[in-house]
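input
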Amino acid sequence: MKSVDPFENKDVEHLQIFIYLIPVIGFFPAIWTLYRHNGSRAQRVASRLAVTLALGWILGYFLLGVGAHATDGQTLRLLIVSSLLTSGYFLANIWLMVRLWQRKSLWLPGVSSLSSRLP
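output
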């Protein structure tokens, strides 16, 4: 039988999930939660989503940066795409924060199904 923690507070859990969704910075507590295998189910789902978004962003940012420095004619285009990717990453995290504040599910098309495959 699962014991109920009398000091458990849903507001503290929501605050922790907000921290996971902070762009760039929230990656570190999210990966720590996944590494330690602790937290509620909602925290683990949000952690997986935050880690998937951050790793996708950093991989795309790195590859576009390398491509911009490797080519001569496409440099400006690749840097513009890189800035759009970064803006999209930040907007996606802010949108997820708004959904969390409204007490709705954290779901992004494609990304959520990919993040659910993480251990």
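quick obs: The chain has one domain: 10-107.
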